[in-house]
Amino acid sequence: MFEGIKGKRVLITGATSGIGACTTELLKSYGAILPANPQGRTNKVFPRDLLSYTVRQDLVRTFVNDFGGIDVLVNNAGGIYGADFLELEEQDWDMTFTLNVKAPFFLARDAFKVMQEQGQGGKIINISSISAKYGGSTTTMHYGAAKAALDATTVGLARAGAPYNILVNSIRGGLIDTPFHKKIGRDAKAIEGRIKLIPLKRIGQPIDIARMVLFLASEAGDYITGEMFTIAGGD
Fold first, then answer.
1. Residues designated as active site
2. Torsion over CA: 129, 132, 133, 139 (sign)
3. Measured between alpha carbons, how far is 152 from 162 in angstroms, rounded to an integer?
4. Is-above-0.85 flag for pTM?
5. Predicted local confidence at residue 226, as pLDDT
6. Which 8-state DSSP code applies to residue 85?
7. What is the rounded distance in angstroms from the CA atom of residue 176 to the CA atom of residue 180?
8. With contact defined as beta carbons under 8 Å apart, do 200 and 234 qualify?
9. Checking CA distances to 37, which of 61, 81, 126, 137 falls within 20 to 30 Å?
10. Helix/strand/coil (H/E/C) assignment for every residue in 167-185
11. What would you measure as the largest C-alpha separation in the chain, in angstroms?
């Protein structure tokens, strides 16, 4: 079912941990993330800070120079800055939007241009969040707004990409067991309380998101674009 992913050149942001690392390993197991150059290198890591304009401007170009092109972009890197909305600084809002909307948009734009020139289409997959649906909590409201903007960008890019067979979709992850929760200060009690609200009564795993990425990146997703897929245990 997923044979078509073999040999595809895939760029995944935020690939060193959590969902990104899991997705990298899954796609690698199906033969993806392979270079087009003769050195035989695979899974090359590009250390990058996507808050930096210079880094964002150069990332896709560096990948294409190394691998000879790009077939799939997975905009996975994300995060949140700041605290409760009553104490939120504008800088925290700006950095949250830069990481979750601005960087994915410009990376997608750069990948789009290359895919268009290649003439064989491509896939762009944005990792969003269920917070785009619910608006987040008092401490993640700006994160939810950023992810909602990312979903809107997905729809616009999908419409622009359709004539070139460049397919663009979002995956809205629910409560997934990653380091993200520790970074924003959620303790075990808070997570336990959140799990009780999920119909399946369990926290999701990175593999749950990674499998949807594989589905969309492979030939199984060749007639799907402009969609938001919620992977959240029924939440």
1. 143
2. positive
3. 16
4. yes
5. 98
6. G
7. 9
8. yes
9. 126
10. EEEEEEECCECCCHHHHCC
11. 54
pLDDT at residue 136, rounded to an integer: 87
Q: Which two tokens stand for residue 29?
A: 């197991």
* Euclidean distance between CA atoms 12 and 70, whole angstroms: 11
What is the spatial distance between Cα 66 and Cα 69, in angstroms, rounded to a whole number? 8
Chain-centroid distance, C-alpha 22? 12
Residue type at 137 in one-letter notation: S
* End-to-end C-alpha distance for the chain, whole angstroms: 28
Per-residue pLDDT of 136-147, as tens digits, reads 888 899 999 999
Among residues of the chain, what percentage have pLDDT more than 70?
A: 92
Residue for token pair 């969902």: 19
* The residue type at 126: N
Instruction: Collect the ranges in the chain with pLDDT lower than 70.
Output: 34-48, 182-185
Question: What are the strands of the beta sheet with 166-173, ordered from one edge?
Answer: 10-12, 72-75, 122-129, 166-173, 228-231
DSSP 199-222: TT-S-B-HHHHHHHHHHHHSGGGT
Give the pLDDT of residue 120: 95
Question: Hey, what domains does the chain have and what are their CATH numbers?
Answer: 3-231 (3.40.50.720)
| The one-letter amino acid at 180 | F
